[in-house]
Each structure stands twice: as structure tokens, then as C-alpha cells.
Amino acid sequence: MKKKYIYFFGSGGAEGRADMKALLGGKGANIAEMTNLGIPVPPGFTISTEVCNEYFKNNKKYPDGLWDEIEKNLAGLEDAMGKNFGSNSQPLLVSVRSGARASMPGMMDTVLNLGLNKNTLKGIIEMTGNERFAYDAYRRFITMFSGVVLGIKKKKKMTENGHEVEINQFEVIMDEIKKKYNAELDTDLNVEALKQLVEKYKVLVKNETGKDFPEEPKEQLKMAVNAVFESWNNQRAITYRKLYGIPDNWGTAVNVQTMVFGNMGDTSGTGVAFTRNPATGEKKFYGEFLMNAQGEDVVAGIRTPQSIEKLKERMPEVYESLVEIYQKLENHYKDMQDIEFTIQDRKLYMLQTRTGKRTAAAAVRIAVEMVKEGLVDKKTAILRVEPEQLDQLLHPTVDPKAKVEVIARGLPASPGAGVGKVVFTAEAAQEMSSKGERVILVRQETSPEDIGGMNVAQGILTVRGGMTSHAAVVARGMGKCCVAGCKDVNIDEGKRLFKVNGNIIKEGEWITLDGSTGNIMTGKVKLIQPELSGNFAQIMKWADEIRKLRVRTNADTSHDAQVARDFGAEGIGLCRTEHMFFEGKRIDAVREMILSDTEKERRKALAKILPMQKGDFKEIFKVMDGYPVTIRLLDPPLHEFLPHTEEEIEALAKEMNVSVEKLKEKSNSLKEFNPMLGHRGCRLGITYPEIYEMQVQAVFEAACELAKKGKKIEPEIMIPLVGHINELKYTKERLIKVADEVMEKMEVNIKYMVGTMIELPRAAITADKIATEAEFFSFGTNDLTQTTFGLSRDDAGNFLPFYIENKILPKDPFVAIDQDGVGELIKMGVEKGRAARAGLKVGICGEHGGEPSSVEFCHKIGLDYVSCSPFRVPIARLAAAHAVLKEGKLEAISTTA
Amino acid sequence: MKKKYIYFFGSGGAEGRADMKALLGGKGANIAEMTNLGIPVPPGFTISTEVCNEYFKNNKKYPDGLWDEIEKNLAGLEDAMGKNFGSNSQPLLVSVRSGARASMPGMMDTVLNLGLNKNTLKGIIEMTGNERFAYDAYRRFITMFSGVVLGIKKKKKMTENGHEVEINQFEVIMDEIKKKYNAELDTDLNVEALKQLVEKYKVLVKNETGKDFPEEPKEQLKMAVNAVFESWNNQRAITYRKLYGIPDNWGTAVNVQTMVFGNMGDTSGTGVAFTRNPATGEKKFYGEFLMNAQGEDVVAGIRTPQSIEKLKERMPEVYESLVEIYQKLENHYKDMQDIEFTIQDRKLYMLQTRTGKRTAAAAVRIAVEMVKEGLVDKKTAILRVEPEQLDQLLHPTVDPKAKVEVIARGLPASPGAGVGKVVFTAEAAQEMSSKGERVILVRQETSPEDIGGMNVAQGILTVRGGMTSHAAVVARGMGKCCVAGCKDVNIDEGKRLFKVNGNIIKEGEWITLDGSTGNIMTGKVKLIQPELSGNFAQIMKWADEIRKLRVRTNADTSHDAQVARDFGAEGIGLCRTEHMFFEGKRIDAVREMILSDTEKERRKALAKILPMQKGDFKEIFKVMDGYPVTIRLLDPPLHEFLPHTEEEIEALAKEMNVSVEKLKEKSNSLKEFNPMLGHRGCRLGITYPEIYEMQVQAVFEAACELAKKGKKIEPEIMIPLVGHINELKYTKERLIKVADEVMEKMEVNIKYMVGTMIELPRAAITADKIATEAEFFSFGTNDLTQTTFGLSRDDAGNFLPFYIENKILPKDPFVAIDQDGVGELIKMGVEKGRAARAGLKVGICGEHGGEPSSVEFCHKIGLDYVSCSPFRVPIARLAAAHAVLKEGKLEAISTTA
Asked: Is B845 a catalytic residue?
């Protein structure tokens, strides 16, 4: 049987349906659906995406018999319309438009008014009695066809002052004619003028291509169809697909449709509308239209369209039909629709309907209200909100109405906006903040010592570092806005100012950062604060009812813990104790410990840190009363705690009362070629057991004291960087002893667990052995990704962007879990671990824990929880619900993807 | 049924057998075997190793009924000997000796002459008529029992000049008595003196322990058995087991055996002998004896024993029996035996027989000759030579007869010995070497830039760095001796000398290094050159007949390739092209390439390197005519090629005609936090494709030129550090194009393959995908170990030794493949790879390729080949044969191990 390549729509029915998007593209499928619904749509036919794919696969050859099939459909169209393609009596004009499965606005080509030539022009004039309209359509057709099909490009030209500019030669001619006829707008041109325009255009085409403008309508059609298919692989379409992850082999369909004209005079017009407000979600018809215009005029923005409500006044019957249709469409599709329509001489035609794009706020409101209206169920409502979108709702944002002066742009490293006075050091940030001032911390790059300053700042701006730099990672963890790697900024710390693109900003001056766009603005810009109750709370509640994964947070302070609780976190999945080592004066004791030569000296220094760590834990436990708290014992290599610059070293030596030489010697002895693979994690805990012992003592003293006051504390002690079961055994044995001693002394019994991070490939591979000792696993996917790929996150900047851009890696593995590689290891770890210890509690605590596709993966492989930074908690909750809902739809997804 | 704990031997038969070593220990099993063979052995019984294990498992409690069983066996012994334990008529004396499954010489305790007290002493005097002998035995017994059983330790004492020395109080008394009786040797003491000695000893025991010396023989026996079991866990035994990998749960047996006396006068004696020469392997009875002595006297070395041949003159009948027995034993055990015997009043008793330890040379000679004698088959002969042992035979060694002055000791980083004049720079090494001088290169530490100097040196001495430092790894690769990390050496480069432990060695002075011991010696020490023909060649030939694994070599130069061919390498498994980048003037072009900002500039610089690389490949291909050569394209990060010190940078800037600032900036931009996980391997090849293109061009131009001259070249192009199939795809596509172009231009067709290193966990996990593009796999186990463990080899020095010492890791994973972790990944990689591409060629090329247990693993999982440094090739060949032979014996091994 011959394959069917073309699908007809018109005469009250269509061969296609809305669910045939893969074959007919979004536009074609929806036009067919509307036709079947009895909605007035100009008839036509859709050439399927398969043709596009075969064309490119077979060295740009079309399937055999395609043109015969086109001719057959064209004949059907003529029949349906009672018009004739290429005839001077009742001529049929068509549009030729691309239409891919996913919307790719403006990326591919369109030709309107096709079928016009000297001969059919006469037929149009006769048919419409409107010569001016006919010539206007003709000149538009020639312009469009020449650009899209004949490939007449803009010309480069030198201006008088030596700049190169691009000149559209058709516009040049248009401007000449306008001048000649003293016309301001296109619409001011009379028939005579348009006739001249057409003649001049034809000469231009002849000059540019060496051939006459094609007269034969079927030749025009063939050329136009070919051009649209070709446009699937034009540079901007390729770039767009790369950007939005649209597969190259989806292809585009081509829609050939009878032309209807919004520009036939004052009883004609064209418009676009949304069935609800796409910005706020309000249930109110929303759109705009232009009288006496074609669709391109609305887009071009030369004339200002009117609000859709005005149409009610101008053409009440048309407006009424439109309202009836949009309601029918929304009820049919059960989602907010984005529609396009044309009015030709008081008759309404629908040209397109599709699911409308919307802001996060609108998505949430529409979803919740549609449930209330009985239009969709809760599950559908949940799926209507993209988890990643929620990020917009969780942070302050720049008021879109505010007037801003953008002075530079960096990387949008952590979302949200922040307003504050510029400071250049963490100390200054803390000092000014303690006086109630809001500050923005501006640094070359941040280091762990800046944590205190970052914590009090409204936002962070760095000159160096990328999306995964220290500043970016920490800021995201804190839910604080961060613009990173803004190389235009030039800090002069001595003069306490920074220069950027000709501006000078001094310490104490106000700036505003937008971490969602990377914009840096002068002054205090008005922000909009997030609203987390109402519809947002409703959709989260529904998500919670459905999801199976628990969602915990990564939090190192009671403040972060509280934020996360407010966002619905059900415990702490990762409390990094090393951040506590930097705060305030305790870094001195930490350094004293590191510089000690004997265990005795180290214990002395650790004894000073003990009460502070204990205090930290108490605060965190209080916030997490009743929820589990996973505490990771010290992880980073000791070298990170030592100062790095010459001056800092000298100052510390003085303070510690040791020689600069000794300090440097010690520092050098701790330096590592590959600190990521060095003396860290449990390797530290094994060689300096006194560090972990102090930490566990602090945890249990804090927990016991609170337990005595009736709090329910569930500490989960997590040993980092275990690669071999013996490392866990060795460490665990000693820690249990300390825990038991504390509990015995304080006469309280605390239920606790000892488990491990699985962050090395070897740990995942030998998870069956490790699970015999570990009471829980937490996959540290950051480090696991680094070791599995052999890829340092800090050093990947020189090649990872190239990899993503050239599709060598499909996604950044530090953003979304690499399911084929790292994911396989995780699966192996879970299976082996649970085989050895039934009911083993398993979670993940890398940054992936708040990324929707990774959350879905975690659900699929049966983890108990994900843990993510506080501001990602709602995203993870929603993503976890999506994961459950998508499970049933897996087959459907795999056939469309 | 009651468990049997004790095994009797005597009266012409024994309850044990030679194959019961696990239960009876080596000594007990062999004594039983000898008894069964009808060889004269003093009767006795063995308490099994199970008792030892139960004792320690059950909190130092012996199994119920053990002592009853001992008493029963003691009664049986009395019957067999017609003597009485503890009686004054015909008293029975016994020895109580440890005997573990593996020989642990001198590590555990022994008590002789047990059963003596005032009463039995009389019986001995009566029985022997030799009062002096009886008292001599008595004083020996008290000394031994006091030390071993009563735990009377040496005393610490201050000498006059303030030094602390250890004093054996029994020796102090002995010296007093000797003085008093004017005796020089023990044997000079008369009965009177010995009687006094005994009395004084007993007073000492009373003073030290607060109790009288135990008189009751059964009490003595109980205490002695207990002490021997306890000695299984004394510190030196624990250390020994750790050192030789003997499991703690093997336990020791205790042998209680009738005493026979070699010290009963001039018709008595004792001796040890080997059935063949253990140093050379010569088939000649070899040993020594002492008349009128107990075994301990031979060991103590106070009197000089005589050669065994003298016994023939002194006691021809005894000698004849001994010869008959040793031949019987060697024929029975079919291996060279190490025997102990005692002659009591002209009657010969055998006390022990066991497989004799031997040098590598002896092992080879004995194995080959025993095959010729028809004693063993070839397979047995092959298994008689330990692969690791061969290392002794492949390098020059210090003549054991040479007089040497050792001035310091470093780490034995690369085996063999070297003699040369001291130089301090690679340049000096090359210059002097070009004049025909032999040199030893002495450096703080080496870096890739020193390769040229290392290559011409006889040996390398470094102050810093461990067993896996650059110097150590490269030296092992070159088969050159290296003493690393000798911290006592203090180099003064300015004065061109080094100081070490008070010696000053100037440039140009002769020194000798022994890389097998770490010794540094002054002057030109005489060396013995390896002899690789004869028996060595014979055993290797047999091994080759049996092994299934192919053995290739890692070689970067034609010299190394030639050495490896001479050692039997069947191709190159890893030719690292980066080493070629450092040689001579080409490093300038490499740096020019790195400093270029555009591809065009880079290509210009690469064009200069091309002819040199091509030349290198030609030389290597010539040596490897007919064998495959795997060429790894550039792997290390570019930063490694730039200079590091301030002076070097300035010099280079001048040479390159760029500013110091630019050079530093470029260098800084290439610096990485974790270079191991950085911009290297195929990541370089992808971002700078011109580098790999140049390398492939060089390979194929070289191959084509030689192919035209009739050589058979099989290049295998290997892409390093592939983690994702797309990396391989991207690189391979470009390289094939270059290869095809060269072949077309040169009109030759070369059979070649493109494959990849599997050195990242992700590569192993996705091996099924990667194998669709890779035509071969080569496991880079060095990097795979680093990433799987998350362990930087360069940084592991601070904790890995602690890990090994404390058994947190059973073995250094950089020495022997970690089979549970890294090995699992390799297995997975092989299985997935072969599932996707039938017959995929798979090998390994890490340092593990020459380590016997790793070679065995590679055989088991079905690799095609291992590749190792040239000097490990014979070891790998033999280990590969062992792997085949052990396969059939797996069950036997698993029950004894």
C-alpha cells in the first residue's frame, strides 16, 4: 500500500486529528481538530513531517508520487472552495506554512498569497472588486516569496561614516515609492503606487536572480513547499532546537491552506487571543486585533493593535462567534488556548489554536481554577505546572513595570533579585548588615571564608567563576540571588569601588541584581515579593497527596533549615558540618587544630570547637523537631581551612604564635595535586579520628539536651567518601562508642542511625558489602558525577560548554543526573544495598535533588527521598508528584519522544 | 561425636599426613608424613590449629576435655618410648614447639627439655650416666622456660655513659659463673659450675615472679602449651603475618615431641640441610652440622658449624642414612627439601622436613632439572617459579661478595643496581652520557622534562616522592634502578654536590644504587649481569606453551620496544605519545602550539612537530615489525608542558618572543584544581582537533613508508579518557578522515583499528554503547583505579600507607587490581563490550599488567592481552601460565586459603 503523505481538511471534516501532532505538526493537527469540531477554518491540506524527514534522509529527494498527491489535494481544495488555482476566474490563493511538532515561533518560513500572477490578479480584482487590495496582496506576495523562496538576501552596504549596515532592497524601493507618493504608511499607497511597486520589485528579482519572477502558480507552490522544508535546517532553526532540546528528526509539516484576507477593507481584520490571561491566569478573554490587516502586520508592530474587547463594539456578531468558539475550544482541549483568527468581510475564520504559554503564576492559577470549574482533575492540574517554573514564584523578582538601568550582565547563577548597598568584603557585609543595612557583596570570586558575608547579603556579584562556582553553588543553596562571572566588572578594592562599562560604583552605593537574568542595575529597583499561599499552596498540597518520594533539604544553618521547613521540607538530608568550621572565631580553633603536630594538641583545639558545634546542632535540631537530620561529618581536605595569600598567612602566623615558615611548611604539606581525590572525607576521619569523635560528641550532647526537654531528635550520622566497607567499619565502631558514652552520661536514649554517602563508583559497585554496615545510603551525586565521568566540576569550563553546544553530551551532568552512566551506578547501588539490607533507607543529596528530571529518575528507581537546597524544595515536591503521574503515561511519552 | 584435637605420631605410624597442613601446621604435618614413610622421627603428638583458633575466639578458653586428651596422648607417648613423664626412672623429656601452616621462622616460641625437675634430673643422670649433660639440659630448660613461659624479660639498664641497654639477667649470671670458673665457652663449664648456675637461676626466677620455678612436669607442659599458643599473637608474629599476608585465623599448632639430644657428647650432634643448593639450585646435598650441640646452638652462631660433607668422614654410617633419607624425602615430596636432624649417640633422628626456600636462580634451575630428571612435569615446574621472583633475574644486581659502604637508604623504587658518576640535571646527564660516561641522576624529584636525562642514566636517586612518584614510575617503565624519597640526601645544586649523613658527594664522583634494597653506596660496586638464556629461557618457553593471554609492552621509544621484544613482548599495548613531546627541541614547538591563540597558529606549530613524531613512530614500527602497536593520542593536560619556575618562564618568554605576563596568563588559564579530572585526553582532542590530526598523520605517514618497504605494520589508534560514546564518535570520524587521506596520497592500504582506553567508570558502565564505535578496548587501570576509588595516586601518601598497615585496604590498589571494585567494573566493561561487538579485542595497559595476581585476574575474565613495562614482560608471561595452571586447582586453593 502506498504511504499516505497528505492529510486534507475542509468541507466540514478533516483526515487528521489533534493527537496526530507528530505527523502533522502542532498547527496541522489543531487545524484538523478544529475542522472536525465544526469551527470555521479555511480548508487546505497538510504535508506530513515524514516527508521532511525522508527528504533530508534521502539526500534531499522527495518521496515518489508526492507531487501527484499534492495535485490531487489541490484539486480537492478547488472543489471545496469552488475556486481555481491559477485561473483568472475565481482564483484560489493559498498560504504555505511550516508547522513542527513543537512550537518554534518565527524560526521557519511562511509564504502568503501564493498563486498570484498577472493572470490570477485579474481574477482577484474581479472577484473582490478591490484593485488596491489585489495589488497590495501581490506586492506582499512578491516580497515574501523573494525572501523566503528565491533567497534574495539583505545587502551589506557601507554607510557614510564607514559602518556596515544591512539593507533590505525591497524596503529601499518601498521607501522610494512612499516618498514619491508622499505616503507615510503602506496603507496610504494608492493603486497606481502599488502597481509601480510591483513592477520595480519584478525588476529587482530579475536583476538578483537572473530570472523572471515565477508566474506559474503550481511552480510557485512547488518552490514554496520546498523552501519551507529547507527552512527546517536553517541556522536559526537549528540553534533554536539546540536551545530547547528539540530532536533534529522530528521534522516539520507544511500546511497549504486557502488564503483568507484580513486586509480586504474595514470589515476585515485579524487578531490573536488567549482564552485566559497568560500573565496572571485570570479567567478573562485576553487578546488584540487589527482591522484591515494581515497577521504579519500584528507581528510587525507598525500599527498598534486594539484590545480584543473593542471588537465587541466594532463587530458584535463576530465577537460573539469568537467567544463561542474560544469557549468551545477551551472546553474541548480543557486547557487555556492561544488562538489566531482572521475576519474576511465580516466572516470569522480560525487559523490556529494551541495550548497557550503562560507564566508560572498563571499556570498555577489556571490549574487550580480549572479543577474548581470541574474542567480537569487534580492530577491533570498538577501536570499543568512545570516544576522548574516554580522557581519564578519562590524569589523576589524585579517589578516588570520598574524603570531600570542595566549597566552590565553576568551569568544568571542563582535566581531571584536583590537590592542593597555595595560592599567588597565579607567582613564589611557582616558589619553593615548588623546595623540593619541591606548589602550586595561584590567579590572577584568567593571562598568558604566568605560564607558569613554571603549569608547576610541580599545578593552576590562575582567577577570570576561560572554557574557552578563557589558563589553560585552556595547562593543557590541559600536561595539568594547571584550574578557570577561578570568579567566587565573591575574591582578596585583599595579605592573601594568597581568600574563597569564606564560607570563607577562606590562602596555604599545602591545596586540591584537580577540573578534570573544576570542583569546588574543601578539604584534601588522595586521588587515583587513571592506569594506562596493561595493557589500555590493548593497545588503543592495536591502534589503532596500524590508523591511517594519524601523531600528533605540540604541545610547547614538553623536559618536555612527554617526556610526549608516553610517550603515543606520533611527533614534535613545533608547538613554539611564544615561550613560551621568557618564561622566567626571558630576558624582560629580549626586552624590551631590543623597546625597541631600531635593528637593531644589536636584534641585541645577541638575541645574549643565542641561547644560551638553543639550549639549549631541544637539550633538546627530545634527547627527540625520530629524530623530526621542527616549530619555529614567533616568532608573537605584540611588545606581548605588554611589561608592562601601571603598576607593572610603572615597574619595567621602571628596570631597562632608560630613562624611563617612553619605555617607555610604545614600548608605545603597539605597541598594536593588533586584535592578532589585527596585526603578528605572519611580518610580524614580515619587518620585523625579525634575530629569525628568531637563532632559526634557535639551531635549527641545537643540531641540529648533537647530530648530531655521533650524534643524528638532523629540524628543520622553520615560518613563521607567511603569507598571500602572497612573505612565505614573502622569509623563507625569509634563513633558508636562516643555516642553511647554521651547517652550513658546524659542518661538519655536517642534513636539514631549511622550511614554513608555513596559518592564514589567503588561504593556503588560494592554497595552490597557496604550495606552490611551502613544503616542508610545517601547518594552524593555531585562527587559521584565527578568521579564517574572523571570530570572536575571546577575545571570543566574549558570544554563542557563546547560539549553541550555540540551535543557531545546531551545535558550538563552536573545539572541533570546522567542516567546512562551515573544513574546506572545509582541503580546498582540501590539494588545491591537493599539486597544486603532489606528496607535500607536511600536518598540523594547532590544538587540534582532539586532538578525535575533527576527527581523523576529517583522516583523510578525507588529512592525514599531526595534532598535539595531550601528554595528547590517546592520544585522537588511537585516534580515528585509529576513522577508518579507520568509513570502511568510512560508508554505514551516514549512513543511521542 | 567429640572433635579430634590431637594427632599422634610414632610407633611406625601417624594419625596425620602431609596434606593436613591447615590442621597440623607445616611442621606437624611433615613429621607425621615422615613417620608414615618409616623415617626415624622422635614420637610425639600435634595439638591442632583449631585449638588455637578456638582459644582466641572463646576469650582464651580451651576446648572442653583438651587436657584429658593431652594426658591420654602423653600416656601413649610414654608407652611408645618406654619412658615416664615426671618419673625419676627412665624420665621422658619433651620439646614443645609451634608450627603454623606457613613457615614463620623465629616468630613464635619453643621450649626444649621440658619435664626436668630435681627428681627427673636424677633419672636422666642415671639413664645417660652423664651428669654434666643432665645439668646442662636443666640450665637450658630453665633459661628457655623462664623467658618463653614465665615471661621474664630482659631488663633495661643505664650504662655509665648514659645509654640505655637491655640486659639478659640469665646471661649476666652465666657470665659471672664463667668468670668464676675461668671458662670461655658454655661447654667449658663443669658439673659443679652448672649446678651453681641452676641454683642461681632458680633464685632469679623466684625474685622476678614471686614464685618458685614450677617443679611439676605436667604443670610445666600445660604452661608451655599455653605460652606457645599465646605467642601466635605476640607483636612480632602479628607484624610478620601482616608483612607476608598470612591470615590471622590460620592459627598455630603445637607439637609435643620426645626430646632427642645432639648434645650428649662427641657421638651426638645436630644439623640442617637442603637437598639441593638453595642459592644456585645445583643438585648437590648442601648443609651444615655441629657435634655435641642442640639445634639452638646452630642458630645462635656461637660455634661455627661444619659443612655437611665433613659428616661423611666423621660418621659414615650416619651420613649414609642421612643421604638415603634426604633422597627418599625429595623423591617423595618431589621438591627440594629443607631438613633438620639430630644425632643422639650415633642414632639419626629427623626433626623436620619442608619445602626449601630458594633464590630465583635456584628456583628456575631446580624446576628445569627436575623435569629433566622425570621428577615433575612441565606444569609443576612452571608453578615452582614465582613470577614476582623473576624480577631478581632481569636486572643487574650487586655482587653479594662485593665490599660496600652504604651511606644512606631510600625507598626501593625500581629494582636492579646501577653504577655511575653523579650528575644533578638531565642536561648534564645527557651531555656526559654522550661522551660515553655512565651517570647517576640525582634530583629533588623528577618531572617529565627530565625524561631525556633519566633515559641515559644508569640509575636515578630522588630526595622526594614515594614508590609511585614520577621518578619511580618512569624508572620502572625503563627497567632502570631507582632509589626514591631518600630524605637524608641534601642537594646543593649551586655547589654541585650533595650531603648525606656526614658524607659529601660531588658531581662526577662514582656512586652505586641498589633499587631493590634502596641502598646508596659510595664508589663503583661490582655488579652481576642478568643471564637470560639456558634454564630461564627454557622455563619461559614452557610458560609460553601454556599461557592464553598475550603479553605486550608499554613502550614509548624504540629502545624500550627493543628491550621488550628481547623479553618476549608480542606487540606494544601502550605507546604514550606525550613523552615524545618533551624530547630535545620539540618541546619548543609544543609550547609554541600551546601558546597560540588561533587554530591556524596551532597548526603551524604542530607542523614542526609532525616530522619528529613521524620519525619516532617509524623507529618503533621497525622494531615491532609484524606485531600490533597501540598508539595513545595525547593525554596529559597542556599545563604539564609549560615551565613552572619563575626562571624557566622568563627564559621561555624570551625564547618565544612573548611577554612574561602573557605566558603567565596563559599558564594560569591552563592551571586546574584537579588536573587528573581536567582538560585532558580526548577532551583535548575534541577542543583542539588539530593535535590529534597531526598525530594520526604522523602515524600513517610512518606506517605507509614502511609498508612500502615490505614491513607489516598494525597501528591501533587509541583515544584516551573517553567517558561518553559521542566523544569517541566525534574524534574517530575526524581521525579516519586523516588516515584515509594519508593512505590515499601514499597509495598504500594499512590495516588499522581505532579503539579506546577504558579508564573512567562511565566508560566501563556504558561499554555496550562505546563498543559500537570502538574496535578495541584497553583498560587503563591506573586512572580507572583513581576514579573508581576517588583516590589521587599523587596525594595518597598521607593516608594510603596507614590504610594498608591497618588492613583498611587489603592491598595497595595501585599495585594489585582491586578485584571487588575496579575489577567488577572491568568485568562489566568486557561483558558489555563483547555483547555489543562480538570478538572485541580487550587488553589492559596499566601498571597492573605486570603484577601476577592482576595478570591472573585478567586471564580469568577473558582478556586478550596484558601490557606492561618491558622489564615486567617475563613476569607477565610466567604469571599468565600460572593463571592457566591454577584454574584447574581453584577448588584446592580456596579450601586452603
From this structure: yes
Q: How confident is the prediction for chain B on average, in pLDDT?
A: 91
What does the alpha-carbon distance between residue B204 and residue A70 come to, in Å, rounded to a whole number? Answer: 120
**Contacts for B665-672 with beta carbons within 8 Å, 24 or more apart?**
B666/B594, B666/B595, B666/B642, B667/B639, B667/B642, B670/B594, B670/B637, B670/B638, B670/B639, B670/B642, B671/B639, B672/A792, B672/A794, B672/A795, B672/B637, B672/B639
Burial of A12 (0-12, 13-18, 19+ CB in 10 A): exposed
H/E element holding A764? helix A761-765
Q: Where is average pLDDT lowest: A537-546, B197-206, B477-486?
A: B477-486
B132 φ, ψ to 5°?
Answer: -60, -45
Query: What is the predicted ipTM?
Result: 0.83
pLDDT over threshold 60, residue B890: no
| Rounded Cα distance, B752 and A344, in Å | 69
| Confidence at residue B421, expressed as pLDDT on a 0 to 100 scale | 97
Q: Report CB contact under 8 Å: B794, A726.
A: no
| Pairwise CA distance, residues B717 & B773, whole Å | 13
pLDDT at B667 (0 to 100): 85
Contacting A residues, span 716-755, partner chain B, CB-CB under 8 Å: 721, 723-724, 726-727, 730
CB-side neighbour CA atoms (13 Å) of A100: 27
Q: Which three cell numbers stand for residue B411?
A: 625507598
Q: Which of B845, B848, B859, B868 is catalytic?
A: B845
- B603's CB contacts (< 8 A; 6+ apart) are B690, B694
Residue B857 has pLDDT above 60, yes or no: yes
CB A294 within 8 A of CB A286: no
Between positions 16 and 45 of A, the ones with CB within 8 A of B are: none
Supply A246's cell numbers: 528539540
Sign of the CA dihedral running A757, A759, A760, A761 = positive
pLDDT at B207 over 60: yes
Contact yes or no for B790/A677 (Cβ under 8 A): yes
Q: Residue B889, Cα to own-chain centre: how many angstroms?
A: 23
Contact of B266 with B132, CB cutoff 8 Å: no
The pLDDT tens digits for B139-194 are 999 999 999 899 888 777 776 666 677 788 898 999 999 999 998 888 789 999 99
Q: Which residue has the cell 658439673?
A: B191
Report the residue from B679, B790, B824 with minimal CB separation from A799.
B679
Global pTM value: 0.83
Query: Hey, is the C-beta of B668 within 8 angstroms of any chain A C-beta?
Result: no
Query: With a cut of 50, which residues of chain A have pLDDT below it?
Result: 1, 890-897
What is the SS3 assignment for B63?
Answer: coil
Q: Identify the helix (H) or strand (E) that includes residue A406.
A: strand A406-409
Q: Which three cell numbers stand for residue A314?
A: 466594532
CB contact under 8 A, B824 and A766: yes
B798 touches chain A (CB under 8 A): yes
φ, ψ of residue A399 in degrees (nearest 5): -60, 120
Give per-residue pLDDT as tens, B656-679.
888 888 888 888 888 899 999 999
Instruction: Inspect the interface and report whether the beta carbons of A762 and B727 lie closer than 8 Å.
Output: no
